[in-house]
Design brief:
Keywords: Membrane, Transmembrane, Transmembrane helix. The chain is an alpha+beta fold. Helices cover about 40% and strands about 30% of the residues. The chain has a 3-stranded antiparallel beta sheet with strand order 1-2-3, with no helix packed on it.
């Protein structure tokens, strides 16, 4: 591993081959840049791994949208009943 100002370079296998015993062996190595995540940002790793999608945030947002929709329906229903009562 070679460090370069916050970015590290690691060796990764870019080509694989099968051995006669049925195992996979690395055929080609290459250097790849990788970014280090500091320990205080460890909570955000799941969001990065999931491609920026957070199930918890989606649940909160979906509940808020559905709650607003139901509230609007109820207000409209009550307003309709009050108009008919006149």
């Amino acid at each position: 591993m070679i460090a370069m100002s916050g970015v590290v370079a690691v060796q990764v296998c870019t080509a694989w081959t099968s051995t006669p015993e049925g195992f996979m062996a690395c055929r080609e190595l290459a250097w790849q840049q990788a970014y280090l995540i500091p320990p205080e940002a460890a909570g955000y790793v799941d969001i990065l791994v999931n491609g920026g999608f957070s199930p918890e945030a989606f649940g909160i947002g979906a509940a808020g949208v559905l709650g607003s929709f139901v509230t609007g329906l109820l207000i409209g229903w009550v307003a309709s009943l009050l108009r008919k009562a006149k």
